Amino acid sequence: MTPVGTPEGTHRPHPVKTALVTVGSCLVVVVALAALTGQAARGYSTVSQQMDSHAVHDAQVDDAFYRCIDVQAHSLVATDQSVRLSAENLADVVTMIKGFGNWVKVAERSSPAQVVLTLRNDTSGPEACLGTRVVATSVGLDGRTLVRLGTGDHVDGQGPPPAPPL
Amino acid sequence: MNTVLATMVAVTVLSAAGCMPVVAAIGLRWFAVPLVPLAGAVLAGLAASASLSFGGGLLNWFVGLAMVAAGAVFALWVMHPERGPWPSSSSSDVPGRGRHRLIGAVGFVVVLMSCAWSLRGLRSPTVGFDARALWVMRPGWFLQSHAQLLIDMKARDLQLTQSAYPPLVSAVAAVAWKITGIHTARLGVALIAVLNACALATAALALVEVGRGVSARLVRRSSGPPGPSKPPWAPMVIGVVAAVLLVFVAAGATEPFLTNGYADPIWSLAAVGAVAYGLQVHVDRSTRSAAALLILVAGLSKNEGFVTATALVVLIAARSIGVSGLRAGWRRWASPVMLAACELAILVWWPVLMKAIGARGATSSFSTSGDLASRATATMHGMSPYLHVLVVAAPVAVVGGLLLSSVRRRGGIGNDLWAWLALVAGLAAVGGALVTGSGAIEPWIRSTVHRITEYPLLEGWWILAVWGVVASAGIGAGIGAGIGAGSVPLDADAITTDARAMAPDGLIEVGNADTFVAGAAR
Predict the structure, then answer these.
(1) Would you call B485 helix, strand, or coil by DSSP?
(2) In chain B, fewer beta carbons within 10 Å around the N or the C end?
(3) Which member of A25, A55, A103 has the closest CB to residue B474?
(4) Are residues A67 and A103 in the same domain?
(5) Do B223 and A165 touch (CB under 8 A)?
(6) How far apart are CA B240 and CA B491, in angstroms?
(7) Which residues of B113-145 are buried (b: 16+ CB within 10 A; e: fewer)?
(8) What are phi and psi of B465, to 5 degrees?
(9) Are residues A118 and A85 part of one domain?
(10) Does the predicted interface ipTM exceed a cut of 0.95?
């Protein structure tokens, strides 16, 4: 074992090497900190843009739209009823999943659903969520097909809601 | 209860569940603090897997797992009191110890404040597209009955193939919903954002640790005049500065996904932290445990995270064993291999379960071999604008490797190549999925490239930041102590002469820089 701090354990530093290491170190520190600082400033500004009034407005409209169709779905389906989401339009399926997919009881493939949910787009009137209404189709006790429209909330205007970043 | 209060309650519950395992595995270290809620999140993810595997409520499993973990830790401390977190009788009058502790505390506070400030995007009530469609929708499924959960995961009508993704993010939101009674996407988003910040803080605090560690080791390595010497300020201060800058860089790189409920930031940040503690910071029981926990966070959060985490498990085990370990007896490599096997077993639980139940999205389709070249080209062109940091990090790493590798080695920092290997593994995981997948490549890249390149991008910034800290030590070493490239002979045994006195956190080192036996790390 050679103890550090004793003459045996220490070589005389080579002045060129020492200078090279010092200059290289300075260079690396400056480049690393300058790059980090520049990108940190950009990052700071990116985060601040999230609070831009336009972004906040879009987020509020998006939130209101999905809350609206959630409320409408609740007006049509009891939590213990089995449901099928109509797969005719993929975009509508995604919208329904986003709006109320977390609580509806999806029916097993082998058993018929008590209620089939779909969306009716481009509608107008006081009960629409940006022009969209949730529609429930079921079979009544008398065997007749029953079509009901969701109620309970509305969002003025026409959809779709502003697209959030993917 | 409003969302802010509900988020605080949820974080408290997660922290209560994760506290004992983290204290037992890591000890009372600054970087252990943000890991506490992340450990709770891992337990929630495991609870979701257990709930789907065996039935039973998610919350029951979560509470049960937390109690088992706490009980195991308590039993360990009773049987082995020396493994407990209470202070040891190590000397407190070591020169420079106060400086070290001060920097540790200051670094912790400023990193935490920076992370909190980076969450100000939460003021906008944004819920991301995938977040609403999957990450904060699936918690509702986890709270339904076991039979219904199976239908939700399998029903082809729902068409949502991403529901087979790993469970951690959704499981955490489910626990929060169940405990607070507030079933809103907003609560899920806020909670995920806080966990993102915890992962970010952990990765950034690794830089503070690098600065402190390098500083301490330079003292004991320095060949200056005899007598007590204090650790140099430069690496410690630069470590703190770089950590804060990294927080802002990472927040910018991951927004808007940092605060809109996506799972990409948490796995990316956790993977960066795992590389930091597992492959870069000096190895001891605390850092190895932190790396293991962060690997679980990354691997249980998203498919890309799973693949990257698997690669990190292999890399960390390889580093722990080393070439010398292969030549040595099984005792040398049994422990790293066992740890890696346990991590892999936990990681593969969910994907195997998805296959076993025939979940929607559990199978993948692959592109034909004729498309591979064009898809690879499109992937490379799509990703390259987001990896601009490599243009700076690569030359800095080359210069650093040529001039400062000696300083880096003496500072106890792992070889830079480990971090580059980890970066390449993450790139390969994401790039490989794009190249071999069957989806239309151009729209796929356009809609995802920003977030799927977060990990390699952040890893590149981390590599650059570490070189900054190492170089700050090189300035002092080059001028004052004569520690240039090869100017002082490598003398591993010399560490043991004063390691006990100068170790920053009660660490006891034996042998070379990669073989540490930790005392109760504090």
Answers:
(1) coil
(2) N
(3) A25
(4) yes
(5) no
(6) 29
(7) ebbeebbebbebbbbbbbbbbbbbbbbbbbbbe
(8) -65, -40
(9) yes
(10) no
How many structural domains does chain A have? 2
* Enclosing domain of residue A111: 56-149
Retrieve residue B410's tokens: 């003496």
Shortest distance between the Cα of B80 and any Cα of chain A, in A, equals 34
In Å, what is the CA distance from B275 to each residue of B22, B126, B137, B315? 18, 31, 31, 9
In this structure, the answer to whether residues A70 and A97 fall within a common structural domain is yes
- Structure tokens that stand for B402 in this block: 């040529």
Does the distance separating the beta carbons of A2 and B132 come in below 8 Å?
no
Quick check: helix, strand or coil at residue B74? Answer: helix
Q: Which domain holds residue B48?
A: 3-79+99-217+232-359+371-502
In whole angstroms, give the CA distance from residue B243 to residue A16. Answer: 32
- Per the DSSP assignment, residues forming a β-bridge with A138 are A146
pLDDT tens track of chain B, all 522 residues?
A: 799 999 999 999 999 999 999 999 998 899 999 999 999 999 999 999 999 999 999 999 999 999 999 999 999 999 888 887 776 655 555 666 788 889 999 999 999 999 999 999 999 889 999 999 999 999 999 999 999 999 999 988 887 888 899 999 999 999 999 999 999 999 999 999 999 999 999 999 999 999 998 888 877 555 554 444 677 888 999 999 999 999 999 999 998 999 999 999 999 999 999 999 999 998 888 999 999 999 999 999 999 999 999 999 999 999 988 877 777 777 778 888 999 999 999 999 999 999 999 988 877 666 666 688 888 999 999 999 999 999 999 999 999 999 898 889 888 899 999 999 999 999 999 998 888 887 788 888 888 899 999 999 999 999 999 999 999 988 865 544 444 333 333 332 222 323 333 333 333 333 333 332 233 333
How close A55 gets to chain B, by Cα (Å)? 7
Q: Which two tokens stand for residue B355?
A: 């296959």
